[in-house]
Amino acid sequence: MTAESPLLLRHRLQWVAAAILLALVYAASLTVYGLSSNAIEDDAPFAIDDDVIMVLVTAKSLQPTVDRMQAEVTIAAGQDYLHANGDTLNRDITLLLVPSTSHEQIVFREGTAPTTFDTEFIANGNAAMWPFDRFEVNPMVVEAYEGLGAQRELVPTGVLLDGRVDGWKAKAEPVAVDTDISRNGTGVDVRLARTGGNLIYAGILLLMMTTLAVLAAFVALQTFRRKRAVDTDMLGWMAAMLFAVVPLRGILPGSPPIGSWVDIALTVWVVSTLVASLALFVFCWWRDSEPVKGT
Questions:
Q1: H or E, element range at 71
Q2: Segments forming the whole domain that contains residue 248
């Protein structure tokens, strides 16, 4: 049996190394995706003191372009605020939500079981910084009062944030706030950033767009330098790559608004490179192709 030549052995080692590198990159991307959780908090059980109203805020979605976070709000009342049956409230409970664009005040009536209300919080951020945009609800102030109108009195209040916001990783921390905003001077700072899975997917799509521009420029330059012959079939190929940029831009995760920094930093240059490559290839075709006889 003859021994392999050094050149063949080196090629095989290069292929093995490339396969190992690809497997490592693939495993790393899955690991990052798995570790990037959307959950605001874990689902651990919580206990409520008898004299406390626990406000449950369940995040549902985030609309970056309009700076809004949709959520559902309800309460879990301690025994002091419930009838003997343990299900219905024995007094009116009023919630104050800040900064909310809807249901700033929510009233849970005496004799009823607490229900769920949809509401919207103002989230501060800049969607044009996609995919590195960050949004904050700072501070989120949620307070509970017993009674109605001017006769209501502040009661001990706790806040529990839960839920999953698709494509976002959220974190909530208690913060001290101005007493003009909160009677008890406390609130919650909610911060949302895109998950690792979103960033990986965005990076792959942007790399694909860049690759299209590089390939088109390489073909056009090689043809211009007469390193390769003009092949008119390449015109259709270049035009197809130009039109491929539009759907790639359209499926970027989170649908970044037109004019985001990624458009100025990448999309415009990819399109410009593809158009310039196509124009250069057309010039090469005109320069190097034979004119039709008799014209």
A1: strand 68-77
A2: 198-288
